[in-house]
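Continuing from the previous page of notes. For each protein in this section, the sequence appears first, followed by its structure tokens. Read the first protein now.
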Amino acid sequence: MAFVLVCPDALAIAAGQLRHVGSVIAARNAVAAPATAELAPAAADEVSALTATQFNFHAAMYQAVGAQAI
């Protein structure tokens, strides 16, 4: 049978670092959101408009999933 030894101080430090990582990711996502979710079509044709719409949709989905993950 294997035994696991745990150091509570090390766990507390690791938890604090993970909490910090989550807030950094949330802040970076908030900064990147306008640039990724407001993509303008590259040209005035239908394909460019549809492509921009797809990218904007995926950016919005990424932001929604990212908000749930943190």
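Done with the first. The second protein uses the same format. Note its length before scrolling.
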Amino acid sequence: MVVVEPIRNRDDVQLMIEWLTLHSAVKESDRQRNLMLFLSGVNLGFRIGDIVKLKVKHVKGWHVQIVDEKTDKPTKRKMPKKFKNAMRQYI
């Protein structure tokens, strides 16, 4: 079994954001998508299975509301201002 560790260092998070912005894909739209997936995980703390299923209808004001895939329970998370602005630009 492979053990996966979270990124704990803010500098590593910043390096990942820079790499995703510049090098993660050939097409600009794919780079933006990859960056938003990463930022969603960092800012909202959802599991990847929940992140890839996110839709515009899940965004309600300053919150993202989903039904958690693992527990099947409703989950509501507040978006930080920087993340909300980035999401607005992406959408």
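What the second structure shows: Residues 10-90 form one domain. The helical segments are 10-23, 28-44, 48-51, 81-90. We return to this in next week's lecture.
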